[in-house]
Design brief:
The protein has 140 residues and is an alpha+beta fold. Helix content is 24%, strand content 37%. A 5-stranded mixed β-sheet has the order 3-2-1-9-4, covered by helices on one side. Strands 5-6-7-8 form a 4-stranded mixed β-sheet, covered by helices on one side.
């Protein structure tokens, strides 16, 4: 009986911790200018990004997607196109960019820029698992 209860307790603890884990995590490393996308804890993608250049900030922390926009145009920066936007803190978003030659280097006003193809993949993944099951982690 004790073994059955112990096994049940272990299974319950594992299922409870799994319920709090994100199905999808986009981990953005500012020092590497790279995003790694994990699905159910396994590395699925590793992409170059561009984050805030000198004088601007990409906020560090852990977030959930607040809003998804298939196509968005910046209201603040010359109506610049932001395809496959995943807003994670106010006006900060992960989105595609046409400035692909700058990927891997700091170049944005604070958003996390991705190759348009990669932004489309991430956008589809977030929609498929649901924003509640996604964590966006920005680290130095």
């Amino acid at each position: 009986m004790k073994k059955v209860l112990a096994a049940f307790a272990i299974l319950w603890a594992l299922s409870a911790s799994a319920a709090y884990a994100a199905a999808l995590e986009a981990r953005i490393d500012l020092s590497e200018q790279r995003m790694r996308v994990y699905e159910n804890g396994f590395l699925r993608y590793s992409w170059k990004v561009s984050t805030a250049r000198r004088g601007y900030v990409t906020p560090v922390g852990t977030y959930r997607p607040q809003r998804l926009e298939r196509m968005w145009y910046s209201r603040k920066y010359h109506h610049s196109p932001m395809p496959h936007s995943i807003f994670f803190r106010g006006g900060y978003a992960i989105h595609g960019t046409n400035a692909i030659k700058h990927l891997g280097h700091r170049a944005s006003h604070g958003c996390v820029r991705l190759h348009p193809d990669h932004a489309a993949v991430l956008y589809r993944l977030v929609r498929s698992v649901g924003p509640r099951n996604v964590r966006i982690r920005v680290v130095r």
